[in-house]
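## tool: complex_structure
## caller: assistant
## args:
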Amino acid sequence: MISFVGAGPGDVELITLKGRRLLEEADIVIYAGSLVSKEHLDFCKEDVEGYNSAGMTLEEVIEVMEEGYAQDKKIVRLHTGDPTIYGAIREQMDILEEKEIDFEVVPGVSSFTAAGAAIKREFTLPDVTQTIILTRIKGRTPVPEKENLVKLAKHKASMAIFLSVQDIDTVVEELIEGYGSEDTPVAVVYKASWEDEKIIIGTLKDIAERVKSEGINKTAQILVGNFIQGAYERSKLYDPTFTHEYRDGIK
Ligand code: SAH
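## result:
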C-alpha cells in the first residue's frame, strides 16, 4: 500500500494520528524535502529507507514506489501541508492507478489554516465574508487567466495566496486593483508553525516593503481581507436569542 500523507505545515505535532502511525510503520518514506520537516523521520523505524523527492523526477518517485510495492513494503509519500493543495499528487496517483497499485490519501493541516491560526483570526465572519479563496500567482506554472488575482480580489472574500511571496510587488499591485483600496489588511506568515516563524501584519500600502526588509522570499502565506482587521457581527450560532437544532433561544 502507498499512503500519500499530509505532513502538516512544519511543527511535527501538526500531523494526524493516522499520518504518524503510517510513518511509524513505513518501510519506505519519500518526502518532499524542501518543505517537510526532517524531524518527521525521527518517528520512523531505524532501518526505514528515506528518499528526498526534492532532487527526484516523477519517474524516479514512481520507480521507488513500484519496486517497494512489488516487495509488499509499506510506503509513505509525505507531502507538505495537505497533499490535495499544490501537492502534484494527481500525476502520481494517475500512474499508480494505471499500474493497478493501491494507494490512499491522508489529509493534513494546510499551511493556510496554520497561518490563520498563527495570526489568531477566523477567515469566515458572518457579515464580512463567508468565502475563502485559495490561489497563487503564476510563476513557471501558469494560472488560468479567468483566475487572475485582480478578478479574484474583486470578490473581497478572504484570500490565502500560496507560492507567491517572491513576487510580492505584483501581488500587491493586483490586489489593490481588485480590492479597490490600499487600506485592505494583509498578513504575511513566513514558515507558520516552525520555530523561525515570522508574522507581518499591515495593509496593501506597506506590506511589500516590510516583507522585503525582513528578507522573506519563500515559504510564506499571504493572507488578505477584512477578516484580519475591522468590525464584524457576532454569530447567530451562539446568540442567546437564536433557536437551533441543539438549543432553544431565549424569547
Ligand atoms: N500542500 C501545501 C502547499 C504546498 S505549495 C499546503 O497545504 O500548505 C508550497 C507553498 O505553501 C509555499 O510556497 C507557501 O506559500 C506555502 N507554505 C507551505 N508551508 C508553509 C508554512 N509553514 N508557512 C507558510 N506558508 C507555507
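## assistant note: The helical segments are 17-25, 58-70, 90-98, 111-118, 149-153, 168-179, 207-213. The mean pLDDT is 96. Handing back to user.
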